[in-house]
Design goal:
6-stranded mixed β-sheet; 2 domains; about 30% helix; Rossmann fold; 6-stranded parallel β-sheet; 12 strands; alpha/beta
Length: about 300
């Protein structure tokens, strides 16, 4: 049986992109999807990420210890080859689709090789899985939380013209600019301009601010007095539970973060059938410039 193996690493948002691209490839080729839940995390000493897709209703089998050997052979061999730049790299122990550049590689869509295939990269573009969007919405939608405070906020998000304002500061990184296209980080002025534009279109909007913590930098934002802070410091912890809240929001403004990207993308499921306008403003400094949906507005 053909198998598609996906090398998972990074935070939840990146893992979701990796899964979505691999799942779409498996569906197109009639292959079994196998997720490597360990190799990409054992040496993550800086961010201490861990496998998180097990909290979502994904459809994949977890790789065995023996099945994980090819990715370790591949990484060791690539050090000797000094990082081969080919997208499709064939080895005796399998084929590897490697994201050598952070852009959309259309070859992935047409790939039909029968051998065991590994995906190695971030794959942060909806173009890889837009033909499987309905399936992935079901498999990546977080379950409803059990905590009462999350359920109450979720109801408020659905009953109002809610705006999820997602701010990613990358303060845990030694070089936050490394996570932005050309190192250009969004300024407070640019974020405030996006907030003003959305509030002009939706004057009765209610802003809900999402961030990893209550950073002093957030005080520089021009926020309505009614803004609700949904950060861990405010009692809203848990990446899966917070992603569920993001998906309940109707409108979105977010800086370069794959996690907030998924919150906006998943929210379309709830609001597509309402025929009500949905405003989504996404930062234009994502490293993968093919990463934003065509209908989203950039700032």
């Amino acid at each position: 049986m053909k198998s598609v193996y996906v090398y998972l690493n990074g935070g939840l948002g990146n893992q979701m992109f990796q899964y979505a691209t691999a799942r779409a490839l498996a569906l197109r080729t009639g292959a079994e999807l196998v997720v490597d839940t360990r190799s990409g995390f054992v040496r993550d000493f800086q961010y201490h990420r861990s496998y998180e897709l097990n909290y979502l209703p994904i459809q994949a089998r977890v790789a065995t210890k023996l099945e994980r050997l090819p990715i370790w052979f591949f990484r060791a061999e690539n050090k000797l080859r000094r990082h081969e730049l080919n997208l499709i790299q064939q080895r005796l122990y399998g084929n590897f689709l490697v994201e050598t550049q952070r852009r959309f590689h259309k070859e992935i869509i047409h790939y039909r090789h029968p051998a065991a295939t590994w995906l190695v990269g971030y794959w942060q573009s909806p173009l890889y899985f837009q033909d499987c969007a309905d399936t992935l919405c079901a498999e990546l939608m977080p379950p409803q939380p059990t905590q009462q405070r999350f359920l109450e906020i979720g109801q408020l998000l659905r009953e109002t013209e809610s705006v999820a304002l997602g701010i990613r500061l990358y303060e845990e990184s030694a070089t936050p600019s490394a996570h932005a296209m050309d190192g250009l980080i969004k300024t407070v002025t640019e974020v405030n301009a996006a907030i003003a534009r959305l509030l002009t279109l939706q004057p009765d909007a209610k802003v809900f601010l999402f961030c990893t913590h209550r950073s002093p930098n957030l005080s520089e934002l021009n926020l309505p007095d009614s803004t609700v802070f949904l950060t861990p410091d405010d009692g809203y912890e848990g990446t899966i539970e917070t992603l569920w809240l993001l998906a309940q929001c109707k409108h979105h403004i977010f800086t370069n973060s794959s996690y907030y990207w998924w919150g906006a993308w998943l929210s379309k499921v709830l609001y597509l059938s309402t025929n009500q306008p949905q405003h989504i403003y996404a930062a234009d400094n994502f490293i993968n410039q093919h990463g934003l949906c065509a209908e989203w507005k950039k700032f």
